[in-house]
Amino acid sequence: MQKINKNVVLALLSLTSLVFLLFQLYYYKFYLSQKNGAVFSKVRGSQSGQDSTRWHVVKKFLGLISSHNIPVYLIDPLILGLVDKDIEQIRSSPGGPSPECKYFCAPRDFTTFALLDKTWKHEMGLFRTAEKMGFQWLKIISKDPRLDGMDDLSGIEIPLHYIFKLASHAIHLVVFYERSGNYLWHGPLRLKQHMDRKFVPFRKLHFGRYPGAYEKPELLLVSIDDLKVQIPKNPSSFLEEMSHSRFLECRYREARAFFQLYPDDASLDAVEFRKKAKSLLHLAALTLNNLGVKFWLSSGTCLGWYRQCNVIPHSKDVDLGIFITDYKADIIPAFQKAGLPLKHKFGKVEDSLELSFQGEDDVKLDIFFFYEEDDHIWNGGTQAKSGKKFKYLFPKFTLCWTEFVELKVHVPCETRQYVEANYGPDWKVPVKRWDWKSSPSNVQYNGVWPVDEWDDVIQIY
Amino acid sequence: MDEWKPNPAVKPHKKRSWYLAWKYKLMNQRALRKLCQTGAVLFLLVTVIVNIKLILDTRRAAYEEEEESAQDYDDEMLHVEVPRHPVSNKKVLDVEVYSSRSKVYVAVDGTTVLEDEAREQGRGIHVIVLNQATGHVMAKRVFDTYSPHEDEAMVLFLNMVARGRILIFTIKDEGSFHLKDTAKNVLKSLGSQVAPFLSWRDMWTFVGKKGGEAYGEKHAKSPALSTWGDPVLLKTEVHLTSVEDAECHWPDTELNRRRKRFCSKVEGYGSVCSCKDPTPIEFNPDPLKDNKVFDVPVAVIAGNRPNYLYRMLRSLLSAQGVNPQMITVFIDGYYEEPMDVVELFGLSGIQHTPISIKNARVSQHYKASLTATFNLFPDAKFAVVLEEDLDISVDFFSFLSQSIHLLEEDESLYCISAWNDQGYEHTAEDPSLLYRVETMPGLGWVLRKSLYKDELEPKWPTPEKLWDWDMWMRMPEQRKGRECIIPDISRSYHFGIVGLNMNGYFHEAYFKKHKFNTVPNVQLKNVESLRKDAYETEIHRLLGEAEVLDHSKNPCEDSFVPDTEGKVYVMFIRMEQEADFTTWTQLAKCLHIWDLDVRGNHKGLWRLFRKKNHFLVVGVPASPYSSKKPSSVTPIYMEPPAKEEGAVAVPAVAAAEQT
To answer: What is the pTM of this model?
Structure first.
């Protein structure tokens, strides 16, 4: 009896230890494969009572800010995603107790709210009340980017983010600033030396890795999970906007250095050209935005932004880029309606499309259409008299927002590569004589249009 | 299993007993099984240990990961905390004070806090105030007591300094000539033994505590009228008190916290820092009904005149309808004290690295300030521009609220200004009356964003041009025939006496007697008649009812205008073409109004008040209103006096009186 028993025990023990080992290996592998490690939420999420803690923290926070009359709105992508699924129902039933905690109890580490800077007066009282309520808070301040473009102005630093922590949940309050160009901006979250790096798992924040640019949202007061809160009227479009919100600040310091080396042209002609280019760009942006066509600053205009944060006065035109996939037939009539007649049209939608519109007094608006390949992006050029085709190659890029001549516009996020592809490594040196067929460093000869197509692919007005 | 070796982790005595057991059990036939059993147990043990180690490892890795991830969010710049002040923990301060003909200096604990060896500057008594707990310099002043009235200013200043503060005095060059007994007595009461006997070209240094002991004094008598006393160097020690003793005990509120921060840093602001019953720093003036300028940003242009800024902000924040959130103070230079004043009032301030020199520096500061204002308030269509040496009328915002729509709608307008260049005590009368003028008065004005962004900013004079921003704005290339709206009685008062283009004499002659509105809620009349065409109708109506004065009399004489009230009179002067202001300038001179250049004209017409009568001056024949002149009247011509030496200097002064 005893013998068998011992054998069984032995076998069992070995088995368990083997299982243990296997589990361990699996666990280790799992961990390794998931380097970003959701270790904490795994540990934490399983605890009971967490769900209602989140709801309570949010409730407390909303109480805190309403007692100080601070209008915040919910921008948490997780909750807005959940809300979006039931948006019709939420819109139609204001108030009324809800049976279950569906949104604010969802597992997460943060709840994110937005605050418009101009709607509150930086009162310290808020934080004292917060402390009394048991919140720990952290403020992230930074230089005011609205003064960055200015020669040597140093304002007081402005708050960009607040984090209120209570128990195991934290509220991330993102401060939005209104900027020239009629858009909202929030700053990046950067911790300073003395700050507590473990205050919250910063990496998991949805806002703050990069600065972001947003349209001013329309808000809607809703009651979800028995809490009254403002949300963007259209959560799904807000979430969509959020995924492409990365903002690039102009390189003001480099621009200043550039002007030290090459003093700005302050002649009356330059002033006049800049004024015209600015109004042309505003008009083009308005027209394309109304059509819902995404565009970015290209060629000389992009170089002007990147190198000197301004229009290059000797460039004589305004250049925009559009992905051919965003092409709409309405573009030409829309520009004509806006008072910009078509000057020429080269190429066709399938190949090397390029449009030129005539602005006032010789300032031209060039729109280049970009074609995406597996490993590069290109746009085409056509020489009218010979029918020669050219191809300009760019490394792949994504689009970021920036501010240029009081306008919120797109530029390639990888601007340097883009500019360098186009203008070569010496893009920092101004060149007044520029030949679009030979000067660009990314130009390739691309054959000749068949003569029978000329009427279609070379249209000059 | 043969290769099995005792686990090194197992404790020795156990190992030994196990070994014995094993040896014993080897005799037994179950030995092998036992061996296996032990092996299994050990195997299990090892697994458990490995398990635990793995768990610990992963956890630590997770932690490190967290920390690493937070590094994405690290600020690139290192913010090294600079120690606030080296003497904060010390109980004793070493003070060195030097007085001589050409140089003074003061060093506190080896740090020079005052050094002045500039030629022909800084004459008189230098005073430094130190905080008795921290040793911080709270105020630095120099009173040129060689000149009259400066001793009174010094007494005023010393009376304002709080009890307990440490005062340091030193004379440069000469400081006794106009040092009257009152001042000497004040110095004596501070503990100076020499002060009452200070005389011509004596050198003197003194360190004392207000209302307390004297720490040291040195004096060198001048041996003869033509020579100075020998340089003196005083070295002394000052005992610091505790911070609590150096502070007032105001109730702990947000406002008082600001006050405390301010009062522990600077001195010379009077009752704002008095422990008993300090003067308020929040004013809560009545809000305006239907305030059209509540959301208009206000840019206060400032330099390093913190006392002026203090006075200016007080009046601004007391004006009805003010919105403190829209106010930004732009300080030209990295001066601490003006920033302290801004923070005292809870406003936001921006410092500007000075670019260029003199007038061009001011001009660049204006540009930066205006650009920044429109950047900070991208929604704003206008900006109110103020300067640090202005008092602001209680109905300043009410005046703007009633008139700002004109600037939006009337393209022929250049600005709205609170200042009437010709609005002196004896020439302005009606607070509800507005004018259109061809000149740009500045001194509290409203700028349209489109004007700035589309026209002015792109071609603003560059630093090397050394131009005055206001003179530049008045040039025809910029103004393009547009006009400004001004009130008859100014809504701002220019109190600055020291400034780039300002001195006491100039201020007394041209600014002191300026009329300033103190009546709240003035209802402006006929605002609509200020529009371009309506104004012409209004002027014609006015000229139609005006009584022509007796042109045979001398217009400078008081009797030129009858002793009536509330009537309208007109006179005609000679003005050959649009730019002929010969007679006008002479008339302005004898009327004691602004005569340094031409101001306040509208198509060759000037409007002012004399003896409470509306008084119109028409330039004939250049003015289109010349047709109103009866044919019997000969326009008055006044000859300019023969050129004097001083005449050359006039344009230079006139060029920049507003800085």
So the answer is: 0.79
